[in-house]
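Work Package 4 report. The design task specified in the project plan requires that, given a folded chain encoded as structure tokens, an amino acid be chosen for each position. We show below one input record used in the internal validation round.
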């Protein structure tokens, strides 16, 4: 049986094909190149997997009745409509962090950077992904519970992810440099590591705020099993240089408790496909 799996973001969409136990190469497309997700998915399936019987995707928004509206893009998708148009046997849409949470146990040590602790413990876990927005989930007893923490209110009517996101990071740099020109996160990281004062200040402020976000989520569920995080704008070298873990445990009453939680940066790219593969096996589609 052939299954198409996808990690559908607000900026990029990634696809792969699963046949038996084999996962194909990953195909990436820019969302701006397509009018809506139905056209994008139809184009991929018809070109690369015309015999597919199943479709499984992680999507960037809360899923209700197998339908989703993108949180940070004016897109929406119905599993029922997709199933009918492509004549598939089944279609399942899941929140993208639910898919990524399913992948955690498939990661190995080389995929992880321990900023605090040396191994994964038993107990509840937290996973946070900074992309176009701010995604989060909890994992308890191997069950994944997606959250919408990024949509909680921060200050002056703005949601938390207005600042703690890829776009928020770039806006912070623009504000500090008083320059409206768009600069990539990779470039800002390079400038920081080469001693640029404003690039370094950008990371210091952003990491301090992000560490508090992780702290709040970790304390909410007592994440003794580990606090995992990832995202394209995060840089392994700057995380260590800025002593990120010190900000995570900076709490007057809970600092000692927080120090016992593994703090783990996921360096592996596209690890969501490990979760998609496991879910396909769970559903008996492989």
């Amino acid at each position: 049986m052939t299954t198409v799996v996808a990690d559908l973001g607000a900026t990029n969409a990634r696809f792969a094909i699963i046949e038996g136990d084999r996962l194909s190469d990953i195909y990436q497309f820019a969302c701006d190149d397509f009018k809506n997700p139905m056209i994008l998915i139809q184009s991929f399936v018809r070109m690369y997997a015309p015999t597919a019987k199943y479709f499984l995707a992680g999507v960037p928004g809360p899923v209700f009745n197998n339908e989703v509206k993108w949180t940070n893009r004016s897109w929406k998708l119905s599993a029922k409509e997709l199933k009918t148009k492509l004549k598939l046997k089944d279609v399942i849409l899941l929140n993208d962090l639910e898919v990524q949470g399913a992948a955690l146990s498939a990661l190995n040590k080389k995929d992880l950077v321990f900023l605090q602790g040396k191994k994964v413990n038993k107990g509840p876990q937290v996973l946070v992904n900074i992309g176009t927005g701010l995604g989060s989930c909890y994992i308890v007893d191997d069950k994944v519970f997606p959250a919408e923490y990024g949509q909680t209110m921060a200050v002056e009517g703005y949601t938390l992810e207005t600042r703690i996101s890829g776009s928020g990071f770039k806006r912070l740099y623009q504000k500090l440099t008083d320059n409206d020109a768009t600069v990539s996160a990779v470039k800002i990281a390079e400038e920081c590591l080469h001693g640029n004062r404003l690039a370094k200040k950008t990371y210091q402020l952003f990491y301090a705020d992000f560490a508090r976000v992780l702290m709040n989520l970790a304390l909410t569920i007592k994440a003794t099993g580990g606090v995992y995080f990832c995202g394209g704008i995060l840089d392994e070298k700057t995380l260590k240089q800025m002593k990120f873990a010190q900000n995570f445990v900076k709490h007057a009453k809970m600092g000692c408790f927080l120090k016992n939680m593994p703090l783990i940066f996921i360096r592996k790219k596209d690890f969501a496909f490990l979760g998609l593969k496991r879910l396909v096996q769970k559903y008996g589609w492989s």
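The radius of gyration is 19 Å. Validation will be extended to a larger panel in the next phase.
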